[in-house]
Amino acid sequence: MKKDQKLSVVLATFNEEANIRDCLQSVKEIADEIIVVDGESSDKTRKIAASLGAEVFCVTNKPIFHLNKQLAVEKAKGDWILQLDADERVSQDLRLEIEQEIHKENNPYNGYFIPRKNWFLGRFLTKGGQYPDYVIRLFRQGKGKFPAKTVHEQITINGKVGHLRFPLIHLADPTFSRYLLRFNRYTTLDATLLFEQGTTPNLKLGVEYFLIKPVSWFLSSFFRHKGFMDGFPGFVFALMSSLRFPVIFLKLWELKEEGGK
Asked: pLDDT value at position 32?
């Protein structure tokens, strides 16, 4: 095993004082350095991160948050990079697996998908396409990059990508109000992207976003991917996920109206 491989843990944050401590403590055993790029938080995020040994940089908060994530990646000095969000936790099993993988001799992989468990309305979702929610988070220095074009993108890897077994814990939605905040932010970003691409909110698009996309998404999530097995939280998640399409359309229409004034 190669014992000389250093691991950098990198995050971009904004007002995450409720999450940042538990997140960083979950990786302190394996991180050779921790980089936090903070988007001018008004709470104690930077102070808490610094107290836990992180190197903290304060920058403007970008609408496309992946710009700050990429900046954190670029500041890392380790041989391997583990990119996290503040509402994520690395379990003991995942920590051991990460250490084993990055120290392997003749490791053919430049990056790894990690299965993610998502918490929603008091439970982890196990169906509905929400588990395993594979995300690329571990990659070699210089081999991974955020395109920084949309909020739903994956890190792109130059080279072969493997899969880890143990999950990353994602506590994004401890309350429904928190979910609604993210729902509003992401639908606004999606509508803005459509607007910038010159998409017109016409009748054809309205039928697609009010009928075709919501119905097909709900049926796929709740029935095909067995979201019903997650009970009421599974139903709410499938419903809200499908409702994002008409919300995006209405926000696009609003942007178009404002742009025409």
From this structure: 97
Query: Quick check: helix, strand or coil at residue 219?
Result: helix
Q: Note the pLDDT tens digit of each residue in 5-24.
A: 999 999 999 999 999 999 99
Q: What's the pLDDT score for residue 255?
A: 95
Q: Please state which CATH number belongs to domain 7-172.
A: 3.90.550.10
Q: Where exactly are the structural domains of the chain?
A: 7-172, 176-259
Alpha-carbon span 85 to 81, nearest angstrom: 13
Two tokens at 22? 């538990």
Please, which residues bridge with residue 168 across strands? 90, 116
Q: Token match 């639908």: residue?
A: 187
Structure tokens, 74: 């670029």
Q: What is residue 195's three-state secondary structure?
A: helix
- Whole-model pTM: value is 0.91
